[in-house]
Amino acid sequence: MRGDEGGAEWIQPVVGRSRECAALADGLAEARSGRARCLVFRGPSGVGKSRLLSGIRQHESARGCTVLRASCSEVDFPSNFAVVRKLFAPLQLGADDVASPVVPVLFPALPPAIQPAVDYAVLSGLHSLAAKLMSTAPLVLVVDDAHWCDEASLRWLDFLLRRADDLPLLVVLGDRCDELEGTAQAARSGIVAQRASTVIELGPLTRTDVGEVVAEVFSERVDCGFVDACARTSGGNPGLLNRLLDDLVRAGVRPGSEGVAAVEEVGRDVLAASVLSRLAGQPERVRRVAAAMAVLGPAAGPETVAALAGATRWQVAEALGVLRRCDVVAASGADFVHDTVRTAVLDALPMSEADRLRAARILNDAGRPAVEVADHLLSLPELDQMWMAGVLRDAAALSERQGTPQTAVRYLRRVLDVEVSEPQRIRVRADLGRVLAQLDPYAALPILRELLNKVTDPDAYVSLVLSFSMTAVTAQRHPEAVRVLGEVLAMLSTKTGRDVSPAHHELCLSVESMLLIIGAGERSTFALVRDRIEERPRPAGSTPAERRMLAATSYVRSLRGEPSGQVVEQARAALSFQANDADPWTERCSLFALHLADVTDDLLPAARRSVEVVKNMGARSDYSYSLSCYARVLLHLGDVREAAAEAQTAAEICAQTSGAGSTAAQFTAWASALVEQGHVEQADEVLDRIDRAWFEESTLEWHYFLHTRARVRWIQGNPAAASDLLLRCGQSMTDVGIGNPVFVPWRTDAAYLLASLGRRSEAAELVERDGEAAQRWGTARAIGRHLMARGAIAEDAAHAVEWLTEAVEVLSGSPAWLEEARAQRRLGAALLLTGDVRGARKHLRRAVDLATLCGSRPIAESARALAVTAGGRMGQPLRSPVDLLTGSEHRVATMAASGASNREIAEALFVTLRTVETHLTNAYRKLRVSRRADLPTALGGSRTRLQQHEHEVEAVPLAGRR
Length: 962
Description:
Layout: H1 18-32, E1 37-42, H2 49-54, E2 66-71, H3 82-88, H4 103-106, H5 120-134, E3 139-144, H6 151-162, E4 169-175, H7 183-193, E5 197-201, H8 207-217, H9 224-234, H10 238-250, H11 260-279, H12 284-296, H13 302-309, H14 313-325, H15 339-348, H16 353-365, H17 370-378, H18 386-401, H19 405-418, H20 422-436, H21 441-451, H22 458-474, H23 478-492, H24 502-519, H25 523-535, H26 544-560, H27 564-574, H28 584-596, H29 603-617, H30 620-636, H31 640-655, H32 665-677, H33 680-688, H34 692-695, H35 701-715, H36 719-736, H37 746-756, H38 760-777, H39 780-793, H40 797-811, H41 817-834, H42 837-854, H43 857-869, H44 887-897, H45 902-909, H46 913-927, H47 935-955
Parallel strand pairs: 1-4, 1-5, 2-3, 3-4
């Protein structure tokens, strides 16, 4: 650790100031060459102006120069030539050394009330003195805190610069703010306006700069989260950072993840002390204006601030001038210099509950957005006025539309504190349950269940039932949802004939379609859904409810494995809606059917759009589930890397959501992608995180789980356990009535395993039944997998080659890249057995290329090993540091490289700030970089190599490649 007591020695002047140091070096070089320059370094208090200016004497380019430095103070402002005297004092001049008009300036013997004249003779005499100094060496005049410089000294500097074009002169000013009352402002403006002058704004230190400073202070490894907290708390202000680190060291805080909370706690005290020191001695009115601005926010105008502060408009304007000079308020006067300063003002100058209530009333009367008013109401312990309920409900509605349901929940809970009307309370609780379901379905379900017995209005009741049902699905209460929906549908169906209006018909379809979708998710209710679909005619698809019914139908029929052409037709009709008519359930069910049918045109954009729609709604659990569905689509189409990234993100979000332990979709999707990447042990661990007590009843996830676990056991070298799991999976699917051969391809996988275990007759029976299902479904993937299975159980290599050759031909024209890679590898292996080494190498190379591009390491490595056995020379596989990143690490690093902050990344991915920090730390280590700025190069270079490899794969004939 560097430094002993004071933190002032820790921060080096050059940290984060390379641009400013370069400007100083250029200015000194020009002065030495005989060209006058003026540099004005401008910035708020603590930004590092003084430290930068104090290092000029030690600058290498300043050797041989006469450097005169003066630091201004508030007492200098009214005294003519006070700063000139400070500048020339180190020279120890006598009265005989200067012209007579200058003597009263440098050697004042006059009473303090009598100021030296500011006339041409004085200014010219001082110019002559400076010119005499410049005749022997370049002259550097440094004036720090120039905003307190007296007018006479500024006028002389202006006079000097206007007559020093060809003189070796450099004037350096440290200036705190943009404006100052009185004639001094005109003098400073005159200096800045000269051609020789350059204004350099000193901004806050970047996060990387802060990290460098922190690393100088602590000799041990510094956690990324600790650096982020220091940067966030100090706002990048070096002075505040200096004091913060000083206090942290004194408190014995270590720079690990455990110290993050201490940074924020200590930082509040540092900021509060800084603000209090700046406001010390200021009138109470100034303090109240600062507090009013902090409470009301940046959108409040002067009238609003005046009303809360109990001041007039001109008093507010006067106070703002004081606050600007104290570097509490920005130069514009509309907001604080930094958000952390606003927080510090609130901590240092807390407002009473009465002031908070007045602030809410003032903002409400001024017509400000409901959210601004509601935020003040939330801080009050009691709400007892009816106008507050309306404000809070409006704020909740706005927050929900903006995708922040957690904020809407806070508002709605407080509405219940003030609302006394029972009908209104029921409506508010219904809204609360519906919004809360997006965050915590287990907490929302009791609220909605209780309301089912209280709502009497039919339309409101049906809306509540739909809300309850969707929440029940998220909370894994499918049977209860199906039961309630069935009861409501039976009640609605009592109207017949002329009593049925179009609106009533639409309502019935809406309830029935949800019943079908929810019922299809449970093994116990799947048969009920299947029978109901067979009995009803196909809807036209002209209304939202009809389109949802088509989506439900296509979803169920795709699981059953009915002809894909009919299923695709219904799914496409379901997706024919306008943008403002989008329904997540309709999209999710239709896209499921389309991706099983390998309909790739517009599939990925539509799937991504569906995810974004749910994401913008702000529902963490729904977004997590939709993201896992999207990952399965990517995996189905062979994009293993991206599928793993999306699925891992979905799982991380799920792990932070209430009740996540019983949600399987995110973890099965992630495990499936990990298996394809060859990370079988990690996939096994991910599968162990699922609560199997619930999801054995799931139509989708239970079978996904069994199939993925079987593949894990298969790769781990336990074919007997793997085959048992696959047969168990197949029996469950058969019992339910699921017959799609590509949804979970248990028959073909079991056939491989049974054949390897010597159980060929069982394998042949499974392959025969799979053939029937594949022909019925009719996609290239289904037929190609079936042909591969026939090759696996063939009694001799020649027959195996025939079947596998046909499989390659069928799959090569499909989007099933992974399946083609498997077929190419198996065909290559079969050709080796027949002695066709050249043909084997051709197909094995193709398998390696496809598997590499997809990101499937097991297929690529096994095909590469076989090719080497066949005598082929293979190049090195695509490998770069980027390949070492996990999916989430790659996603976070990519967003960070594009300029997103850690907090923006956390909000976009629905993960915690700590998770983002961990992923970034790991990415830095794996990519061998130490700064955020290096990420684009580290990530982009690898992407270029991958694209170049893809081009070579397409351009060079496979058979001729060695």
